[in-house]
Amino acid sequence: IRGYHTVKYMNTSNTKDPANGKRLVGSDGNYISSTAIDIIGDPNAKYKLSGISTLSYKNLSFRMQWDFVQGGDLLAYTPGTLIGRGLTKDTDFDRLLPWVLPGVKADGTSNDKQISSSEAFFNNFSGFFGMSDLITYDATVVRLREASLSYSLPSSLIKKTPFGEVSIVLSGQNLWYYAPNFPKYCNFDPETSSLGVSNVRGLEYLTGPTSRRFGGSVRVTF
User: Fold this and answer.
1) How far apart are the C-alpha atoms of 2 and 10, rounded to whole Å?
2) How many whole angstroms separate alpha carbon 194 and alpha carbon 81?
3) Is 57 exposed, middle or buried (0-12, 13-18, 19+ CB in 10 A)?
4) How far apart are CA 137 and CA 32, in angstroms?
5) Confidence band for 10, pLDDT divided at 50, 70 and 90
6) pLDDT for the residue 1
7) Got the DSSP string for 80-144?
8) What would the pLDDT profile of 58-96 be if each residue is shown by its tens digit?
9) Could you give the C-alpha distances from 158 to 95, 116, 220, in angstroms and in order?
10) How far apart are CA 221 and CA 68, in angstroms?
């Protein structure tokens, strides 16, 4: 990692053919890991949007907050682990069939070397073996950050009490998100971070998932 506001990932990646930019495949049918340290991503989003709306009718009020993040790269080992070990429906296929990794051989011709599905996914697509670019994803996400429904008691019910207003609120946070650039069945939330509230962003090392939270409250004014 280097820089601060212009921070980028520096890590090992898959070797590319300089003529066409395609991934190089070795004689054993596996991708070739580069021996150089390369820039493989930038965790800074292109932009972020938030929209908050409130709909009220008589004593009821419904509020929502939607967030949208465009871009920003995330080096994520959780999807790589699930894919590499065959623990997700994304790998629900006939595992006895051979695989030919997309890419080119050293002479520039298309790869035609067959390998097992275990080799293809564990040795390559997992990103475990020095090819971190294979598990670096575009972290674009749309999220329903919060929704709440509140009901204010009619003034006729509380006019003889010391209360100025009484309302009952039901709320939920992180209710739904859609991250289209991650493996479909990994259900991975790109808001996950392995480094907490530090300045470093965009790195995920088998961190626990985010949570969906529900709550209720009674608000009273005097």
Assistant:
1) 8
2) 15
3) exposed
4) 20
5) low
6) 34
7) HHHHHTT-SGGG-S-TTS-B--SSB-TTSSBP---B-HHHHIIIIIT--SS-GGGGEEE--EEEE
8) 999 999 999 999 999 999 999 999 999 999 999 999 999
9) 67, 72, 11
10) 34
Q: Which amino acid, one-letter code, is at 140?
A: T
Question: Which of 15-29, 59-73, 136-150, 169-183 bottoms out in mean pLDDT, i.e. has the lowest?
Answer: 15-29
Q: Classify residue 178 as exposed, middle or buried by CB count within 10 Å of its CB (0-12, 13-18, 19+).
A: exposed
The amino acid occupying position 109 is: T
Q: What is the pLDDT of residue 94?
A: 94
